[in-house]
Design brief:
This protein is α/β, with parallel strands linked by helices. The protein is built from 12 helices and 8 strands. Helix 5 runs parallel beside helix 6 and helix 11 crosses helix 12.
Length: about 300
């Protein structure tokens, strides 16, 4: 059973950095539940404000519904109420509804609606998709604005007006005009999350738009560095942000941008470089090359 009402969840998640843990894999790419649990227990000491289990960094798109349920239940049990756990819901509407129900039954505190599978959608279809999830659970619901799930300001407003448990909007597109619109018209009715890959890169300008938090994949392998960067953003420490961006983020992004899908692959490689391996990524993603891994290892050693 959730420890947070939707409003309480909105406030809790917006108060600090968000953890999007990788999902650990054994050599045969099956779930490494013990490794995943140990990783969550390790990260718990660093004090993120929320844990999104089996999100994009957690390779949601490569997990079966049964595996998603296992990951969520493991996360809920591992953190034991010390941090809110948000479970994913995705694919078609019927599957997303079932996932939302499963997440609530597993003891999660919120639901994260990822883009539906494959097809493009009209705005009334996107609305009905999220509305069905909101109706299916009492938990707070956050949507991910990315890929084919391209929300307009009007659709977001309709959801906010129609469903008290619709509490959050995560931007994975970089649509500044839309964020400015939502922030100006809905204010703190919603939580706004930064969700572009390597969200640290956009954190300071997004803060000016009311985006008080973001999903940090780097938190997986360099949690202390990620938290200090977040604190620098919140205090508007432009000098510290510029130095961290120059010394780490710029060369890190140069490696990440070499191939499609490396936004997840580079995080798992970072885990290995930090001495906390989480296994390989599952297809259709691919791991870094040996040369790329060596270059990344030099960077990671500077921030752990």
């Amino acid at each position: 059973m959730s420890n947070h009402s939707p409003v309480e969840l909105r406030e809790a998640l917006g108060s600090g950095l968000l953890s999007f843990p990788v999902t650990h894999a054994a050599e045969d790419l099956t779930l490494d539940v013990a490794g995943y649990r140990e990783h969550l227990e390790y990260l718990a000491a660093f004090g993120a404000s929320g844990l999104f289990a089996a999100g994009g960094t957690g390779e949601f798109f490569s997990l079966t519904p049964g595996e998603v349920d296992t990951v969520v239940r493991t996360a809920v049990d591992a953190v034991a109420g010390t941090v809110p756990v948000v479970a994913p819901a995705g694919y078609g509407t019927s599957i997303a509804v079932e996932m939302a129900k499963s997440g609530e039954a597993a003891g999660a505190d919120g639901i994260f609606v990822l883009p539906p599978y494959l097809t493009e959608m009209p705005q009334d279809g996107i609305y009905e998709h999220v509305a069905a999830v909101c109706r299916a659970t009492k938990l707070g619901v956050i949507v991910y604005h990315r890929a084919n799930a391209a929300y307009t300001a009007e659709t977001v407003r309709r959801l906010a007006e129609g469903f008290p448990n619709f509490i959050g909007f995560k931007d994975g597109v970089g649509e500044v005009e839309l964020l400015a619109n939502l922030s100006a018209t809905l204010g703190d009715r919603l939580l706004y999350l930064g969700g572009l890959p390597t969200a640290e890169t956009f954190a300071l300008p997004y803060l000016e738009l009311g985006v008080t938090t973001y999903s940090s994949a780097i938190f997986n392998f360099a949690p202390a560095w990620a938290l200090e960067f977040y604190r620098a953003v919140r205090r508007h420490d432009r000098s510290a942000i510029a130095q961290a961006t120059r010394d780490f983020l710029v060369p890190y992004l140069a490696i990440r941008n070499r191939r499609q899908g490396y936004g997840v692959s580079i995080v798992k490689a970072g885990m290995t470089a930090a001495g906390r391996p989480a296994g390989a990524v599952r297809p259709p993603l691919s791991d870094l090359t040996s040369d790329e891994f060596e270059a990344l290892s030099v960077l990671v050693k500077q921030v752990i």
